[in-house]
């Protein structure tokens, strides 16, 4: 619980007064009050200002900023300023500069630019974190630490290469073990000395910016290592902060489905997860919902912080559409509905120069409050004040879980065959979307998560099966759970070495099938899923593409077969009774109609129902406190739409209105209801 001192949904965002004069910052606090803003994230990119040279630290501007904010009722999310290193540091200590994928040593520039294994960067990052913690440990404004900013990007420098070898030694012990795990007799890659191992970048095993590799073993390990290296850099600052402020929560802002970091590992090291939500105008709302759920899943369902979103538009997309009237409020509540206990923006005031001057902000370049964006921000701010502490620290309760795994994602992307069109995130989203359409809450879980609270667990394309996972899945099904997996699952271990003896390897007896071959066709080529009989909502024919496992039912019952090609008549959908439960295998990538009918079938079997019935595009999701349930009804449509309360009467928490039965909700509106 991060909310003791400010027990409401925090409202605010990134704020850079260091870019402005006195007069402007005075205006800022006046307008923050009008907008109901009570938290400002400061000091994100101010390392150069805080430490103008090696031995000088100057936090006067920050003292003034924090005091002024606090005197005006605004708390602080205090960043450690290490997200971009100072130019003097880059000049004097080349080790802070990264070497990129092509092997080029970077010059000074950009941000998020430090090598995570640079002794200089680590020394000074830790030092400034400690100084900040010491200085502000008793400041009543500071609510939470924000370490660095959006960690990411890999480095391939000499220091990283050396640290990689140490990381490998710790993981494998001996070179023999490394050689075995990476299957290095292939193409004569056997290593005899540790320093023969180099970073697998574009000068070595990988090409196309790391989309492809000759050796999955080393490439997977390098990703793990870089993710760990950045995490170690985070931990170093975190621990420095904790030494002075053991009770202040520490976070760093994540990026949802960002591919490069294993966020489940990161979640464990943070007191509270926070993330930056930047969908584009055409991102499916269910994709955003899924990403919120994934971020909630990083700490097993604990509420998270929405650290950033734009109040209006981005600047870094090719076309930066404005959020249409109502959409900022709608997407803010979508985040809250999925577990966010803060609504924060990038940024509070639009900057005057450089690359983000056309990025939306609560305060626009015109500088006053008479703008659409400010009015919408202020309305939301007042609502969040009105909601008091009613929502914070409540939980989303789900009986369905979808497994997500970054290492599996890397392995699929790097697999080299059978298809370049296989997209792990898309496959996961297909299943998520089907639950979403029925207002059935889903937890996005890691492969380590305890399964005992779930009735249904779906692991789409579980290509990599990690040690112990198959056993946990078997126990879950044996006790009565429903498990679903798909084509191209159970194929390899954590080093991308194939589990011999027939696909799907360790999952074979659980799903009761053997996949003999895997066909891959260009995605415009479809096969058919032909149901043998009607099963629940499933009947007739559906389409499938991308990959086609040619499977034999061993113990499983065949529910559907392929409709064409030389494997016509072979099973494509099977169900295996395993102990008290069932395990389904879907041998190809089905169309969305199939996925919906399939999900409807298994949820009916388990008697799982959505929160309320609603028109398409009207999302309903609940957050629960001990014996209280708060429902969010979100109309993503451009028109009014309806939902049905059933027999119950719900009260609108903001207006006091009551609703029973068929109820209309305005376009882009959100209703927050309690029973
Ligand atoms: C985020 C970043 C912010 C700002 C924002 C613009 O990724 O953390 O500093 O750049 O994007 O959308």
Question: What would you note in describing this structure?
Answer:
With 675 residues, the protein is α/β, with parallel strands linked by helices. It folds into 3 domains: 10-81 and 125-133 and 142-151 and 249-393, TIM Barrel (Alpha-Beta Barrel); 400-606, Rossmann fold (3-Layer(aba) Sandwich); 613-674, Golgi alpha-mannosidase II (Immunoglobulin-like, Sandwich). It contains 17 helices and 28 strands. Strands 12, 13, 14, 15, 16, 17, 18, 19, 20, 21 and 22 form an 11-stranded mixed β-sheet that branches. Helix 8 (216-244) runs antiparallel to helix 13 (406-414), helix 10 crosses helix 14 (424-436) and helix 14 packs across helix 17. The longest helix has 29 residues, at 216-244. The chain is globular, with a radius of gyration of 26 Å. The model has no long low-confidence stretch (mean pLDDT 98). The protein binds beta-D-galactopyranose. Beta-D-galactopyranose is lined by residues 149-150, 276, 278, 308, 314, 346, 356, 359. Beta-D-galactopyranose binds next to loops.
Describe, in short, the structure shown.
The chain contains 17 helices and 28 strands.
Topology, pairings included?
Layout: E1 10-14, H1 22-35, E2 39-42, H2 47-50, H3 60-71, E3 75-79, H4 87-92, H5 119-136, E4 142-146, H6 158-172, H7 175-182, E5 206-207, E6 212-213, H8 216-244, E7 250-251, E8 253-254, H9 263-269, E9 274-276, H10 285-297, E10 304-308, H11 327-337, E11 340-345, H12 372-386, E12 400-403, H13 406-414, H14 424-436, E13 442-445, E14 456-459, H15 469-478, E15 482-486, H16 508-511, E16 513-520, E17 527-531, E18 541-553, E19 557-562, E20 571-578, E21 581-586, E22 588-590, H17 592-605, E23 613-614, E24 618-625, E25 628-635, E26 641-652, E27 658-665, E28 670-674
Helix pairs in contact: 5-8, 6-8, 8-13, 10-14, 14-17
